[in-house]
Design a protein that fits this description.
Layout (H helix, E strand, L loop, with lengths): L1 H14 L6 E2 L5 E4 L15 E2 L32 H6 L3 E2 L3 H10 L1 E9 L2 E9 L5 E5 L2 E2 L6 E5 L4 E2 L2 E13 L3 E10 L3 E2 L4 E3 L1
Antiparallel strand pairs: 1-2, 2-14, 3-13, 4-14, 5-6, 6-7, 8-9, 9-11, 10-11, 11-12
Length: 198
């Protein structure tokens, strides 16, 4: 019951932030300042099941879910896109091309610090026009070492109906830092950073 109450509070909050700040990085689309469900740019917010607008509940076994069979990009489709469903107002999940543009056209600067005994880290992504957003990292021991994160992308991977491309980034021992796009099983869960057309 407590978990259900917290989930309802989260949903109400998400409905109330449709006026989310859009940051113009000098790219083809504007990027949201926060993840969906986050209270500030360094929180990772809520996790969604890939290819759906469903919030991940640890008490629900993923194998019991009925998942959509996408054959086309679902960005902007409120039936599946969490950003569109919860924020509206033109917000949607980024496509493969939009994530690729963010990776290739921006300067990515790693940040990390301690707060109340917790390590806060991620990338500050600086656009060609000097404006920036923060993408928080949340996975300890990501790909064997370091910290990293995966983010929802709306584009299917070729003809595999249950494989999607996700944006990944990682910091390893403060030296080897990289970001790239990889395919990932739709059953996995990731936060969403929304975009909006200019």
């Amino acid at each position: 019951m407590k978990r259900l109450f917290l989930l309802m509070i989260t949903l109400c909050f998400m409905k109330g932030v449709s006026a989310q700040e859009a940051v113009d990085l000098g790219l083809s689309v504007d990027w949201a300042a926060y993840n969906i469900g986050a209270n500030n740019p360094e929180e990772y917010g809520v996790f969604f099941i890939g290819g759906t607008k469903d919030i991940y509940n640890p008490q629900t076994k993923i194998k019991h879910l009925v998942l959509p069979k996408h054959t086309a990009d679902y960005s902007g489709n409120p039936d599946y896109d969490a950003a569109t469903a919860y924020w509206g107002d033109g917000w949607r999940t980024p496509t493969y091309a939009e994530w690729s543009e963010l990776i290739a056209s921006c300067n990515w600067v790693w940040y990390e610090y301690e707060s109340d005994g917790n390590r806060i880290c991620g990338y500050q992504v600086i656009g060609p026009n000097g404006n920036s957003i923060k993408l928080p990292a949340y996975i300890k021991g990501f790909l064997s070492s370091g910290h990293g994160a995966g983010y929802q992308c709306s584009t299917p991977f070729h003809n595999f109906k249950y494989l999607y491309v996700f944006a990944y980034f990682k910091e390893k021992k403060g030296i080897n830092k990289y970001k790239h796009m990889i395919k990932h099983d739709i059953l996995h869960t990731f936060p969403t950073r929304a975009v909006r057309d200019k």
